[in-house]
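Predict the 3D structure for this chain.
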Amino acid sequence: MTLDLIPDGETVFIDANIFIYHFTGVSPDCSQFLSRCESGLLTGITTVHLLLEVLHRLMMLEAVGKGLVEAGNIARKLRARPDIVKNLHDYAINGLRIPEMGIGVFPCSMDDCRYSQQKREFYGLLTNDSVLLASMQARGCFNLATTDADFDQVKEVSVFKPGDIQG
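Done. Predicted structure below.
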């Protein structure tokens, strides 16, 4: 199902990739979806661990986009060049705007981490994806905005994807 099919008034858990595609200007569908959250038509929520993932990925993209490092093993290259990291700022300006966009950002609890093990064992999800699933379900949310095909197998949630991104 596409993001535009989410009925007004619903609560939707938002995966990091939706924010990345919005902030990089790659997906008008993601931007329109986040505008619906910001205007209050939808209640968007996420967790701090996903906000950190957004910040990390935007930092990598900024460094490459500004020609400061070449693609491939970007984190390793930046670790070796803290002088570059000190001068990257756009990623933080964008990523830290998420709460200002009407998105609720919740902590990830130890209970979420414990429950995520069941999700890994049942679905074979990787750690961050299983914590996302456990966190959203702990908050009574069963709608997920993502581009990640790994969630297609999860029957207890409704998965919504941007129509302009090929998974």
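The CA atoms of residues 11 and 43 lie 4 Å apart.
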